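Bench notes, afternoon.
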Amino acid sequence: MSHCLQTVTMSDVAVSWHTAKMLKLSELLDNATVSELHLNFRSEKIWVKSEGPRELWPVFHKLRFLNLTDHSEECDPAWTLSILEGAPSLEELCLRVCNRCELTWDEEERKAFEFSKDKKDTGLEREISASDFKHHNLAVLRIFGFQLEDKFLDYVSSVMESAVNLKDIYLYHFAAFKNATTVLPLASASSPSLHAVYTKLGFLAYARVTNGFIQAYCATGRVTDARRVFDGMPRPDTVSFNCMIQGY
């Protein structure tokens, strides 16, 4: 008999035991379907074993929201794509990357608490995704703790390629202030770092995004940068021309 669960939250707090057995979610949640899933990796280790869509579908075919918390910055988030394949109804994916352990524990304290020196994703083998896989319901991707590293850029690109109806992507970084972690936007709209991210991910192919950069550059007096973006547009529209005219 199948059980319908609205929300499931799981966490591994045994920070000293990095050799603990990795769990298969399909076995742990056997005979149940889940709508919201919250997984906490405050132990630093990715304790979830990768599975294919056939194993995950019976449990996750009704999953709407997935929240992954305290995901170590050392780990490649690509393993979560396996869950995406097994959860065809997923609408929002939230990934919270954490460097708290490096900020909280110095080397002597980590040794005293028997923290492992192994990679945090040791033993995690991602199931190979089908190259033609498409997800039709994922609408929102949020990443807190996003970093300008290839693994994060590649991950976002993979999600964009698979999620054909993706509407919103929110990328944030963490800033430490007085020993507290504050969520801030990745960068201002006219920031070169944000422009580089959008270019890498192919966002500038969309006129709405490109026009936003043109407008932001003009508003801050960087007309030369705005013109460079404008000249790179394959098909400038009326908004593009109006932004440039106003900028001059």
